[in-house]
Design a protein that fits this description.
The structure holds three protein chains of three kinds. By secondary structure, chain A is an alpha/beta fold. Chain A has one domain: P-loop containing nucleotide triphosphate hydrolases (Rossmann fold). Chain A is about 30% helix and about 25% strand. Chain A is globular. Chain B has one domain. The chains are: A alpha/beta, B mainly alpha, C mainly alpha.
Chain lengths: ~200, ~250, ~210
């Protein structure tokens, strides 16, 4: 298993949102997270990315194997498309940015400043960033926002290629990506019922 | 008493229960000692042969200055306890102590100015001691403002604790810097009054009593305010729960 | 990290402060010469303060800060590089502009060397301390004023020793002690403060 989560409980702003969550992700797996707004998808992904701590439970993942893509793309508007990708490649200690440019058809845009891109083009650049990190597990938060059908297909192809190479992807999304191999995980049954976030808030009562 | 029983008081409920019993005594004792110290100092000590009756402001000035520093020290310790042991009462006690410390600093500065007017002929001089207290005042302001600016309680506790640690180091640095700087301006020694030095017993005893009074007053105020903070925190937890039940 | 922008902002502010001083205290050259080292230090400090909220603001808004936090770079390295970038874009230009602005304030001849040296030694500390303040207030609405309130008392020792070096230098006195203390503060903050900045940044990204 590349990523395994057992009996996880997470909270947002001190209020528990998900509990008792367990799942595992192996090489070649695509797991799609479903659930209504506010059910804790983003919080779960941020927890897996290590940006916040779980209330309880275990997350087992090899260090430096995971890359996170949030709602915001992390694109510098004054840098060109190539410069943006090169920057992130350097941060992750990688060299080659060509596969990323090809996978998301960014070659015609390569020398344009990212600030001049449309929302959908920016998103494509944001997703291309995943390819330059060289990380095996993609943790994606609503990756298809503002993408057209053609770009969604590009993205699906990129995910398929990635998992075929032994990668894995965990995707929170509302739309159908056309990935037949993807497993669905509905978060609705894991919504937190417990009222106290931890023993200390309980001890205030 | 071993340490484990001490940590028990870090439980909010236990803290409220204990202080329920302790607080009236501390508050009463504070009122008594403070009243005794001030009345003794103001009305039953002779005037200083050099400074006249103006010297009597010392019974407010010195104890408040003492507590202004000790309040920050207490915040430093409680912040460390929060960082190391994550006891919520500790963080809330630091939060509760800050405004008290701020007021103590203000009293020390104001009484200093009122004392300085007849003695030095000026309300304010950039004397190292006064300057240090002005800087301490700024530290208190920043600390309180940071608490107020952050919504999430735990985030605020973490950030203010680190600010308190870093601030303590810089406050100490500032103290030495200010001493150095004032020397550089070739003033100070003639102006600075060293309280407590070569004071007669008749002045010393009431000063000690009012110092004890200020310590007790500080403890009573911090306990009271910590209880308020705990209750406010409890209120937020209850509101959050209610919101969740309706969600 | 270089796409921060606002390169000239601090510099323009420095210029404005220095230009306004003669209007407020009067044009007597002797008076200006006496206060010139202090005014230059104050102007540099305020210009530095003005640009602090930009250290993390853009990266916070476009999400790069989250992504950097999950990258292989340790947070301590990120805040150190951020402080370095701030110094290169704000502190260093201020150091270079100081002698020109010293002319406007009729800074004594011997003063130039020490104003430049003291600013060169002191402004890195201002950037590192400012980065700590910026990390504390990242993501806060109306964080700018709070940032100034938090950072100003932390700037006191650096300002005192820095301005003292410049003043003593301009008056032809010995500068060794304040110079060593200033260097000590700069080294100390560069070595230790990034750990605190990284810690508060982690808390703020939670």
């Amino acid at each position: 298993m590349m990523l395994s989560v057992s009996d996880l409980m997470i909270s947002r702003g001190g209020i528990p949102v998900l509990e008792g969550l367990s799942f595992a992700l192996g090489a070649g797996d695509v797991l799609v997270l479903r659930g209504p707004n506010g059910c804790g998808k983003t919080t779960l992904l941020r927890t897996l990315a290590g940006l916040q701590l779980p209330v309880s439970g275990r997350i087992d993942v090899a260090s430096e194997s995971l890359v996170y893509a949030a709602h915001a793309d992390g694109i510098k508007t004054t840098l060109t498309v190539t410069e943006n990708l090169r920057f992130w490649a350097q941060v992750f200690g990688q060299e080659n940015i060509m596969p990323a440019i090809e996978a998301f058809h960014l070659a015609p845009l390569a020398d344009r400043p990212a600030g001049a891109l449309s929302a959908g083009q920016k998103r494509r650049l944001g997703l291309a960033r995943l390819l330059v990190t060289g990380r095996a597990i993609w943790v994606l938060d609503e990756p298809t926002v503002s993408l057209d059908a053609e770009a969604v297909a590009m993205f699906a192809t990129a995910v398929r290629t990635h998992v075929a190479d032994g990668g894995a992807a965990l995707i929170a999304t509302h739309i159908d990506l056309g990935l037949r191999e993807a497993r669905l995980l509905d978060l609705e049954p894991y919504r937190a019922r417990a009222l106290a976030t931890d023993d200390f808030d309980g001890s205030f009562l | 008493m071993n340490l484990n029983t001490l940590w028990e008081y870090a439980n909010p409920k236990k803290f409220i229960q204990t202080t329920d019993r302790v607080l009236p005594w501390v508050a009463g004792l504070a009122a008594l000692t403070l009243g005794a110290g001030l009345v003794w100092g103001f009305f039953f000590t002779p005037d200083d042969y050099r400074q006249g009756s103006t010297v009597k402001i010392i019974y407010l000035h010195v104890p408040s200055a003492l507590m202004a520093i000790n309040a920050w020290l207490m915040m430093l310790i409680t912040s460390l306890v929060w960082i190391v042991r994550r006891h919520h009462v500790s963080a809330l006690a630091a939060r509760a102590a800050a405004p008290v410390g701020l007021v103590m600093t203000l009293i020390a500065l104001l009484t200093g100015a009122i004392w300085g007017q007849p003695m030095w002929g000026t309300w304010w001089a950039w004397d190292p001691r006064l300057t240090s207290f002005l800087i301490l005042f700024l530290f208190y302001l920043g600390y309180i403002a940071l608490w107020a600016a952050i919504e999430n309680d735990d985030t605020a506790a973490d950030l203010t604790s680190i600010l308190c640690l870093v601030g303590s180091v810089f406050a100490l640095l500032s103290r030495y810097a200010v001493n150095f700087w004032n020397q550089g301006l070739h003033q100070g020694a003639s102006l600075s009054v060293a309280p407590g030095e070569r004071m007669a017993m008749t002045f010393k005893l009431p000063l000690y009593v009012s110092m004890a009074g200020f310590v007790l007053l500080f403890v009573a105020l911090v306990l009271m305010r910590t209880r308020t903070e705990i209750r406010a925190r409890r209120l937020r937890v209850l509101i959050a729960r209610q919101r969740m039940e309706h969600a | 990290m270089r796409a921060g922008g606002g390169f000239g902002l601090g510099l323009s502010f420095f210029l404005i402060v220095v230009v306004l001083v003669p209007f407020s205290v009067g044009p007597q050259n002797a008076l200006l010469a006496e206060i010139a080292p202090g005014v230059l230090w104050l102007g540099a400090l305020l210009a530095c303060l003005l640009s602090l909220d930009r250290i993390f603001a853009l990266d916070w808004e476009d999400g790069s800060l989250d992504l950097l936090a999950t990258s292989p770079l340790p947070m301590e390295a990120i805040v150190s590089v951020k402080a370095l970038a701030h110094w290169l874009t704000t502190g260093l230009p201020l150091v270079l502009a100081a002698p020109v602005l010293g002319l406007l304030l009729s800074l004594p001849q011997e003063g130039y060397r020490w104003v430049i040296i003291s600013l060169f030694l002191g402004t890195p500390a201002l950037s590192v301390i400012g980065t700590f303040g910026a990390a504390l207030t990242v993501g806060l609405k109306r964080g700018g004023l709070l940032l100034s309130l938090l950072v100003l008392p932390l700037y006191v020792p650096t300002l005192i020793f820095g301005a003292e070096v410049a003043r003593r230098g301009a008056e032809g006195l010995a500068v060794t002690t304040p110079l060593l203390l200033l260097a000590g503060i700069t080294c100390g903050t560069i070595a230790l403060l990034p750990f605190a900045s990284a810690a508060v940044l982690r808390v703020n990204l939670r």
